[in-house]
């Protein structure tokens, strides 16, 4: 709990539909764990929308597939993100993201059944 974790995503808008957009993304994640470090590379897509009564808030859902690298090897895993963002300036948005990942590395390392773990990220989004 409260593990330092850095998540960087490059999102590219693929389609625009009224108040919504479809995005493709590439993500990099690094976490300094007690026993080792975790690196994750992911590719995915997502849907972001805003509602007429809450136009400043953007709501998104993203689904991706990734490669987790740990000292015990490399593992594949699916993940999903739920995100809400709010503008704090013209070019910067405050983001709250809930991430859920099928952690196959934990399943293999600790000989358990499915290990689906969630994480919460607070950060900034800015256009390049």
Explained architecture:
- By secondary structure, the protein is mainly beta.
- Helix content is 5%, strand content 73%.
- The chain is elongated, with a radius of gyration of 16 Å.
- The protein starts with a strand and ends with a strand.
- The model has no long low-confidence stretch (mean pLDDT 91).
Oligomer: single chain
Radius of gyration: 16 Å
Mean pLDDT score: 91
Number of helices: 1
Question: How many beta-strand runs?
Answer: 7
Task: Supply the helix-strand structural class.
Answer: mainly beta
Shape: elongated
Distance between the termini: 32 Å
Q: Pick out the low-confidence regions.
A: none
Order of helices and strands: EEEEEEHE
Q: Strand sequence of the main sheet, in spatial order? A: 1-2-3-4-5-6-7
Portion in beta strands: over 45%
Largest sheet: 7 strands, antiparallel
Q: Name the helicity range.
A: under 10%
């Amino acid at each position: 709990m409260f593990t330092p974790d850095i998540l960087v995503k490059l999102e590219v808008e693929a389609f625009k539909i009224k108040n919504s957009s479809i995005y493709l993304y590439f993500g990099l994640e690094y976490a300094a764990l007690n026993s080792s470090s975790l690196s994750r590379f992911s590719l995915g897509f997502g849907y972001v929308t805003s509602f007429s009564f809450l136009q400043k808030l953007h709501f998104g859902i993203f689904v991706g597939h990734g490669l987790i690298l740990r000292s015990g090897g490399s593992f594949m895993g699916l993940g999903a993100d739920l995100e809400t963002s709010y503008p704090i300036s013209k070019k910067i948005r405050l983001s709250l993201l809930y991430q859920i990942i099928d952690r196959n590395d934990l399943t293999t390392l600790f000989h358990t059944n499915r290990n689906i773990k969630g994480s919460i990220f607070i950060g900034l989004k800015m256009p390049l």
